[in-house]
Amino acid sequence: MRSSDIRRTFLDYFTDRGHTRTPSSPLIPDDPGLLLTIAGMNQFKPYYLGERQPPQPRLTSVQKCVRTSDIDNVGRTTRHATFFEMLGNFSFDDYFKADTIAYAWELFTRHYQLDPDRIWITVFSDDDESVRLWRRIGVPESRIQRLGMRDNYWSMGVPGPSGPSSELCYDRGPKFGPEGGPAVNDERYVELWNLVFMQHLRGEGDGKEDFPILGDLPTRNIDTGLGLDRLAAILQGVDTICETDLLAPTLDVAQELAGRQFPGHDGSPESVSFQVVTEHARSAAFLLADGVLPGNEGRGYVLRRLLRRVVRHARTLGIETPVLAAVTGSVVENLGGTWPELVAGRALIEAVTTHEEESFGGTLRQGGRLLDAAIGRVRGTDTTRLSGETAFELHDTYGFPIDLTIDAARAAGLTVDEERYAVLLDEQRRRARGGGRGRTADQERRLDTYRRLLTRHGRTDFAGYTGTLVET
Ligand code: ATP
Ligand code: MG
Ligand code: MG
Ligand code: MG
C-alpha cells in the first residue's frame, strides 16, 4: 500500500465515523513553551485544557512532527526519524477507551489487513480496564504487556494535558531479534500506534517519568498517534523507514551521488550515513518550508544541525559534490503533491541549502583534520574520551555541531566530554550576552543574507533566531 493510500484510508475511516478532518498545524507551534510540533495533539492543547471549545467533538488529522530528541537514533534504529507524519484521531469529551480500542483494532486488521496474530498490545501498568477491553476484542493475555511511565504514560514533556496510554505494536519476525514482545525488543515488535487516554494535568518536572500529576482535566478525551513512516515500512515490506516510498527517492539520490548502494540496515557507519543523509534531508526541507532558517539558537540551530549532519555524512560516503540542494530537492519532488508548502518553498529551500553548504563546506575540511588529529592523539593514550575543549573548538571555530563530533568520536570507539563542552558553551554564551550582542559578525552577515533571501522569495515569517525554548 502506497503512503498516499495509507493516509487516505486513515482519514476516510475516521471521517466515516463522524470525525472532521483538520489540517496539519505548522512545525512552528502556536505554543510559547514548545520548540517544534512533536505530536498531532499539540494544536488541540487548549481543547484538552478546557480553555477553548473544539469545533467538533471528533477530529482527525495528518500532522507534521519534528522530534530533535530522536536525532541520534536515526540510522541506528530502523524506525526513528527526526521528521515524520503522525496520523491521529481525537475525541473531546466524547468517546473514550472502548471505542478507541475498537476503532484501532478494526482499522488495523480489516482495512490495513495487518495479521492480528502479530499485533502486540502494551498498556499502562495498572490499567485493568484496557486489558479487559483488548481481551474482549480477542487479543490473548500472552500478547498484552504492562509497562510503566516511560513507555505508557504520555505528555508533551512540559506541563499540560497527559494520560495513560495503550499501544499497538507489530511483530516483524526473528530477522529483527529475539522474541518476548515490545517490553524486551522494540525493534522487532515495532511500536506503531499510541492511544492516549488524555485525562490528567501534569506539572513541572524532569523527563518522561519524574513529574507530578496535578489532577484531572475537566473532560475525558482521546488523542492517538500512528506513525505513517513505520506503518508504511510494514505494509511495503521494507526494513527501514528510509526504504518506504516516503523516502526511497531521496535515498536513490544519495546512492547516485555516492556511486554505491545502500547496504541495508546492518549497523555499519555507511548504513547509518545513508539513512542520516536521506532522513535529515526531509526534515530540513519541511522546516525551511515552514519558515525556519538556519541559525545558532532554538529552531534555527535544529535546522543547522540537520543540514550540517547531512553534509558531513555525505562526505563520509565519498560524496564530494554539493549534496543538500539535490537531496532536499528530491523531497520537494516526492512529497510536494501532498504538502504544497514544499512546492511554494522550493526556491527558498534550494537557495538556503546551497548557501549553507557553501559556508559550511570550507570549514568542514579544516575541522575534520583537527578532529582526526585529536582522535589520533587520544588513541595514543589510555583514555577513551575526547576533551570538552576540542569539542568546543570544533563548534566555535569550525561550526561543528556537538553531535557531529560525538558521531565521529563514536565511530572511532571514543566518547566526548559533553559536560565540559556544555560548561564552555555556557561561558561563551554568557560572555556574548555581556558584550551586548549574542551574535558574532559572521552570524550577523549570514542573518542579513537570509533576510534578503526571504524578501526575495516573498516570505516574511522569519523564525530562524528565536530564544531558548523547551526542546523535547
Ligand atoms: P518510540 O518509543 O518508538 O520512540 P514514542 O513512544 O516516543 O516512540 P509516541 O510519542 O507514542 O512515540 O508517538 C506516537 C507514534 O508516532 C509512535 O507510536 C510512532 O509510530 C510514531 N513515532 C514516534 N516517534 C517517531 C520517530 N522518531 N520517527 C517516526 N515515527 C515516530
Ligand atoms: Mg520516542
Ligand atoms: Mg514508545
Ligand atoms: Mg509511544
Automatic annotation (TrEMBL):
Cofactors, names only: Zn(2+)
GO molecular function: alanine-tRNA ligase activity; aminoacyl-tRNA deacylase activity; ATP binding; tRNA binding; zinc ion binding
GO CC entries: cytosol
Subcellular location: Cytoplasm
Record text on cofactor binding: Binds 1 zinc ion per subunit.
Ligase recorded as keyword: yes
Enzyme Commission designation: 6.1.1.7
Superkingdom of this protein's organism: Bacteria
Family indicated by similarity: Belongs to the class-II aminoacyl-tRNA synthetase family.
Function noted in UniProt: Catalyzes the attachment of alanine to tRNA(Ala) in a two-step reaction: alanine is first activated by ATP to form Ala-AMP and then transferred to the acceptor end of tRNA(Ala). Also edits incorrectly charged Ser-tRNA(Ala) and Gly-tRNA(Ala) via its editing domain.
Designated name of the protein: Alanine--tRNA ligase
Organism expressing this protein natively: Plantactinospora soyae
Gene (UniProt): alaS
Interval of the full protein contained in this chain: 1 to 472 of 888
